[in-house]
Design a protein that fits this description.
446 residues, six-stranded parallel beta sheet, five-stranded mixed beta barrel, 14 helices, binds 5'-deoxyadenosine, binds iron/sulfur cluster
């Protein structure tokens, strides 16, 4: 049988969907290729969040399709956000592409591969208002840590963001499906789950359009987010729970209490801020002000002193002045982020802000990006330095990529620790390690 490989761009949601599609191919009798170059079937899972992400995927598809000249039987397919956005147009840009499968229908990938092997192309796009196909299959021996998608789509409509257009209406997977999936994972050795959703704290808000398909059961159609976290924590074998991404409106007293009382809930929150200027936040339609955001951070830090908070920031949003930018700088200092991902604004077709002038020059975006990155480097180094001498509980992941003699693992706060492994250590084992040394992105222990 032909072998397959995935090349995945974008967020964890995409990583998860590639895995579910891979499991479907495995079930159909195909085998994972040892590497992409030798694979008979290569599937690119694409991201549309910035123009650059799409350019990369298109470039990759061009290179892959060029290999068909020497290997005419090779199957090259596209899935994910860019397939959804471009639809049929993608076959004009990449004429020898075998299939394009949009979002919300990862279950179509395996049939599209079968069709391609018989020489038939596929374009599959599902109605974005219809109930999605939630990725549920996991590769066997996937290790001790797994992603579980609990919320698909997004209803927020931030001015810059293409996600609602490519991933559709927000939909909470029924809690019983989520819990059954995690129970099976735990039975197969998974110790850590990361729950995924674009606006994950909205999980369990009823989605009237979907209620008709799934009438409320005695336990409810689904659970409010904090209840779901508790139900996951009650599953035997699960030792750590993470989730992403957060929104300040979801930082409720109830969630904070869970961080304090539920030892399995990791002390890390990814809380994208996007800007530190209330004027820009309002134009972005983010639904909070600078003060509201900083208040959420202060409440978290007061109640959970060792929590790590990470963020996303966009520089050069239309109309962002030097003063707005300085407010982002001071917010980042005040929030003391453990890590930050900084992006240069990229207008996306169909979004509200794409109708406004992209008036911050590329050079100015690059300057603002650099300043925030170097601020964050200094901040990250100081925060890590403060951990030297402390004892941290680390879940071992495996041999370090850079230095095979050492292992790497993560703290509850999601920091990477490099250490010398004791004999017989297995991935997923927990160790209490004294931190000896710190670099901006890494901690070292014996
Ligand atoms: N331009 C630049 N960055 C963007 N992001 C989302 N949309 C855009 C855009 N149009 C960033 C946000 C988001 C992260 C995943 O990508 O910071 O949190
Ligand atoms: Fe990219 Fe957003 Fe799609 Fe994730 S949901 S792959 S970040 S466009």
């Amino acid at each position: 049988m032909p072998t397959f490989a995935f090349h995945t761009y974008g967020c964890q949601m995409n990583v998860r969907e590639s895995e579910a599609a891979a499991k479907a191919l495995l079930d159909a009798g195909h085998t994972p290729a040892p590497d992409e170059a030798s694979a008979d079937i290569v599937i690119v899972n694409s991201c549309s969040v910035r123009g650059k992400a799409e350019d990369k995927a298109l470039g990759k598809l061009g290179l892959l399709c060029a290999t068909k000249r020497e290997r005419p039987d090779r199957v090259i397919g596209l899935m994910g956000c860019m397939a959804q956005r471009l639809g049929n147009e993608v076959f004009r840009r990449v004429p020898t592409l075998d299939f394009a499968i949009g979002t919300r229908c990862a279950d179509r990938v395996a049939p599209a591969v079968e069709a391609a092997l018989q020489g038939r192309p596929t374009l599959a796009l599902r109605d974005l208002h219809a109930q999605p196909d939630a990725p549920s299959g996991h590769m066997p021996n996937g290790g001790f840590s797994a992603y579980v998608t609990i919320l698909l789509g997004c209803n927020r409509r931030c001015a810059y963001c293409i996600v609602p257009d490519v991933r559709g209406d927000e939909w909470s997977r029924p809690a019983r499906d989520v819990l059954a999936e995690i129970r099976t994972l735990a039975e197969n050795g998974v110790r850590e789950v990361t729950l995924l959703g674009q606006s994950i704290m909205n999980y369990g808000l009823r989605t009237p359009a979907f209620d008709a398909d799934d009438p409320p059961s005695p336990g409810g159609y689904t659970l409010p987010f904090p209840r779901l976290l508790e139900a996951v924590a009650a599953i035997p074998g699960i030792e750590r729970i993470r989730f992403t991404s957060g929104h300040p409106s979801g930082v409720t007293d109830e969630l904070i209490r869970l961080y304090q009382e539920e030892p399995k809930l990791c002390h890390h929150l990814h809380l994208p801020v996007q800007s530190g200027s209330s004027r820009v936040l309002s134009r972005m339609r983010r639904g909070y002000t600078r003060e509201h955001y900083l208040d959420a951070v202060a409440r978290l830090r007061a109640a959970v002193p060792d929590i790590a908070i990470t963020t996303d920031v966009i520089v050069g949003f239309p109309g962002e002045t030097e003063e707005d930018f300085q407010e982002t700088r001071t917010l980042m200092e005040a929030a003391h982020f453990d890590n930050a991902f900084i992006f240069k604004y990229s207008p996306r077709p169909g979004t509200l802000s794409a109708t406004w002038e992209d008036d911050v020059s590329e050079a100015e975006k690059a300057r603002r990006n650099q300043i925030l990155l170097s601020d964050q480097d200094v901040r990250g180094a100081l925060l890590n330095q403060a951990l030297v001498g402390t004892v941290q509980r680390v879940l071992a992941e495996g041999p370090s990529l850079r230095n095979k003699a050492k292992w790497s693992g993560r703290t509850s706060s999601n920091k990477i620790v490099i250490f010398t492994a004791p004999d017989g250590l297995r991935p997923g084992d927990a160790l209490d390690l004294t931190i000896l040394r710190a670099a901006p992105q890494t901690l070292y222990a014996e």
